[in-house]
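Hi U.,

Before I forget, here's the chain from the pilot set. I'm dumping it here mostly so it's searchable later in email.
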Amino acid sequence: MGTETLDFKTIKQILSGADSDENLFAEADRIRRSIYGDAVYLRGLIEISNHCKNNCYYCGIRADNTNLTRYRLDKDAIFDCCRKGYELGFRTFVLQGGEDPYFTDDRLCEIVSKIHECYPDCAVTLSVGERSRESYQRLFEAGARRYLLRHEAASEELYGVLHPSDMSLANRLRCLYDLKEIGYQVGAGLMVGAPGQTLDHLLEDIRFMEKLQPDMIGIGPYLRHADTPFGRSSAKCAQGLEKEQKLQLTIRLLAILRILFPYALIPSTTALGTIDPEGRALGLKAGANVIMPNLSPADAREKYAIYNNKLYTGAESAQGIALLRKQVEEAGYRIVTDIGDVKRKDSQ
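Structure:
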């Protein structure tokens, strides 16, 4: 299988399971090794807040979930996470949270600039949702250089299935293009097997990403949370695909994305590790080259519950880094803790 064979008809055929997964994964792995070798980059994830003003229908930290114990980390707690992560060898910190109004531009800029000042050899990545262009510019000037913002659905129709009417695909895309224009390394992505999603929707996502050319692509299987409209609904459209179907579809799409976007940084996500004990290893073998262990305080990990039964202990914690290293080596790769910038074609 060569990259020139991946037209949209072929992609749809692969996603449907009509072709050999073995050949697909082998080609994806060949491509990632030709550019990144056997390196798997670690990103230290710090979940700064589970407060969110939005009411996305799939997300456990949605504003209307009254069964969730809310928390937010203050700046000292965030700095402590960075200190411990740095001592463990992490050189990228990912500050992730719901769209929490508490984290104003002033507060976030103070945090980002302090991390940048204390750890100048580290990258600061943000994943805090939709903000104004001016906000993104200020955060960039404070020292943030990467931003993760899943587009979730490039289809207007499907975006409306997943989100309330006060959220729009147009604004999500505006954010992504603003980030690109400012100079961030930008990450987009989606849930696989989401309610109402079809293979044609996934093709639409690929078309959009071909236009955006993201530096990072994060995908993972859709997992339900009981305290959401989808989690409470018995309708088939709200259930999504079966577990095994979602797992297979996710790793097939991951491999396709590696072939189509050979230079992208692509994580083997927590959701893959949650849906299957071998999920992360399967993701790596299908072309992923990033893992994001959780540096958040132990009492916060369980509360950042965007879906049920989220993996947050063992290899997901900083304390389990030795186990994670062993698992990655058993899969045939090697953990790298350095900054791990995206490689680009013109630099080869």
